[in-house]
Q: What sequence folds into this?
């Protein structure tokens, strides 16, 4: 499975961005997909997760609940992260993740910078 993330950028606090992650290859293996982020000097953390295919169960980290929305287009094999009411503390490199039963796949990161 290959993952290609896009959509990062520079935005002012209170603004919005939408990240996209296109999955290709053996996508039938994917059980769920997620977005992680890593801020400078911090560990990578889970932001949001969603089941793949027929399972649409979602999970959000406490700090993004009510502001971020994860969704997917199964027909196009694209994962999205709609980020609203962005805060400076959301500044990080955001990574797309996909999991099969045995393997963890990562896309390249996309930088999100929120200015105050």
A:
């Amino acid at each position: 499975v290959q993952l290609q993330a896009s959509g990062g950028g520079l935005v002012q606090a209170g603004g919005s961005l939408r990240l996209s992650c296109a999955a290709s290859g053996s996508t039938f293996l994917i059980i769920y997909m997620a977005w992680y982020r890593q801020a400078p000097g911090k560990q990578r953390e889970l932001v949001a997760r969603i089941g793949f295919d027929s399972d649409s169960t979602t999970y959000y980290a406490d700090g993004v609940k009510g502001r971020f929305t994860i969704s997917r287009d199964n027909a196009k094999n694209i994962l999205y992260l709609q980020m609203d009411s962005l805060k400076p503390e959301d500044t990080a490199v955001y990574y797309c993740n996909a999991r099969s039963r045995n393997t963890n796949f990562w896309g390249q990161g996309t930088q999100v910078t929120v200015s105050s």
